[in-house]
Amino acid sequence: AKEADTKNEYAKLILHATLELGQIQLDKGVKAYQLKKYDEAYTNFDAAQKIIPPPDDTLATLYTAISAANSKNYPAAITNYNKLLAGNVYKDKAKVYADMPTLYLLNKDTAGAIKISSEAVTKYPADAALRKEEIEVSLQAGQQNHLITNIETAFKAYPNNKTLYYYEGLT
């Protein structure tokens, strides 16, 4: 319809119809998710975000990522979470960063898990949960040398953080 409306005579009507179609897909996804039909929810949420793509609608993208993760479609979950990180519209990026290392590990991508957890700590250095995630992922991957450097850097910023002493002892 957009392509046929070369003079923008029906722009408002087309926009309204597009938003309605996106909402219908979103509603179908919610119903499927509530029934724990995560594959179906993923399909519907993905269709919704294709109708109203990010950055216009980050909710559909978030729901697509969550449904993909619940249906064990880890590559799709990672892709959709990365869409949220890429834009400037989605505000709870620290939460996305907190979920992603686990998704990478479930996808058997240890290097990706290390990279995303390091990126998270770089962007949110005061977030203790993200730092803990980075340390745990690095320990699982056998990256003790890299980890010691990161812990020493964290000590300078947060000298009273007792958890850092614990992780230093583990390395």
In short, what is this structure?
The chain has 171 residues and is mainly α. It has helices spanning 11-34, 38-51, 58-70, 74-86, 93-106, 110-123, 128-140, 144-157, 162-170.
Would you kindly provide a written description of the structure presented here, covering whatever features stand out?
With 171 residues, the chain is mainly alpha-helical. 75% of the residues lie in helices and 0% in strands. Helix 6 runs antiparallel to helix 7 and helix 8 packs antiparallel against helix 9. The longest helix has 24 residues, at 11-34. The N and C termini lie far apart (60 Å). The model has no long low-confidence stretch (mean pLDDT 88).
Keyword list:
171 residues; mainly alpha; 9 helices; elongated
What sequence of helices (H) and strands (E) makes up the elements? HHHHHHHHH
- Separation, N- and C-terminal Cα atoms: 60 Å
Helix-strand makeup class:
mainly alpha
Which value, in Å, is the CA radius of gyration? Answer: 20 Å
The percent range for strand residues is under 5%
For the largest beta-sheet, the strand count, sense and barrel status come to:
none
Helix content bin: over 70%
Number of strands: 0
Overall shape: it is elongated
Poorly predicted regions: none
Mean model confidence by pLDDT: 88
- Helix segment tally: 9
Helix-strand blueprint:
Elements lengths: L10 H24 L3 H14 L6 H13 L3 H13 L6 H14 L3 H14 L4 H13 L3 H14 L4 H9 L1
Helix pairs in contact: 1-2, 2-3, 3-4, 4-5, 5-6, 5-7, 6-7, 8-9
